[in-house]
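To whoever is on call:

I kicked off a structure prediction for a single chain this morning and the downstream step that reads the tokens threw a length-mismatch warning. I double-checked the sequence; it's 349 residues and nothing unusual in it as far as I can see. Pasting both halves so you can look.
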Amino acid sequence: MQLIDSLDAGGAERMAVTFANALSKEIKGSYLCVTRSEGILKDELLREVEFSFIAKKSTLDLRAVFRLRAYLKLHKIDVVHAHTTSYFMATLVKIFYPRIKLIWHTHLGSRVQTSRWKNRILYICSLFFAAIITVNEDLKSWCLQKLIPSQVFYLPNFVSFNAAQERLTREQSIVCLANLKTPKNHLNLIRAFEKIHQQFSEWKLVLVGKNFLDEYSKKLSEVIRVTGLQNKVVFLGQQKEVNSLLCTSSIGVLASDSEGLPMALLEYGAAGLAVVTTKVGQCEQVMAGFGRVVPPNDSEALAHALGSYMKDGEKRLSDAALFSKHIRKNYSVEGVLPQLINIYKKSAY
């Protein structure tokens, strides 16, 4: 069972859905359980995946814990694969139903900058983990140092190429697939785009991700207004289906201050985009020289990298094709899923 707090359109949520869908074709029973709230990614689940929603009302909602325990017992589920913050619910269930094997999957790259004390609840819960999965090597090292020793595996995220569509023509657009929150540093991206938008006046910047309507998004809107980019920057919010949008764009970008291994990069590759990203988390390793990698929070470097692709269509198409081939070879379901199943088998004993 994949366990996740919601199915809003975030990287960890997409990964939980991707795992559940892929496993449904390989094992006897693939389940996905949402603890707090459903979301738009629910529609992407295959019919073969058994879905449940336990409607957790609070951190210590014991009724929800027992509902989940009953569901696990009914379906004879052996392994619970808890993503991000759902580890706490999974640990409570493990206490009341010890026979399950609990695997925690951490996607949050910025966790490596935090102390054991700040993660004291996680530290206690890690006593109950059969294994930990991380999305980059830095997180693996952090888990080995800061948590109670257990098996720790680095497993790259992966993406499905089944829905990828080829397009003969693409719009002159840059797309950023990232929820509007601080670590994604959209402000850095806006500042970079401001530096080059007059030179490339036909291009637009498309921001795809959940808008939390907080101070961060208000500041973004204000910067766009002050810089006069209202007609060049498009907010699309959460999208159920991003593949068709990506396949009609030309450049994919991430301007983050921290990352694990972002699903956005893999989705850019599957859709055949040229890619510009900051050098954080596992991003440089994922790019493998087939795109532009710049320092975080450096709008000048980001603007130069974007401009180089906007100016040179031949190089843009060449790098996009090479990156797509690289992602297909190293970050597709065929390459990663056997590793995940092997982790499940090792953790079961």
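Update from on-call: the warning came from a stale cache, not from the record. Cleared it. Sanity check on the structure: The chain has 13 helices and 13 strands.
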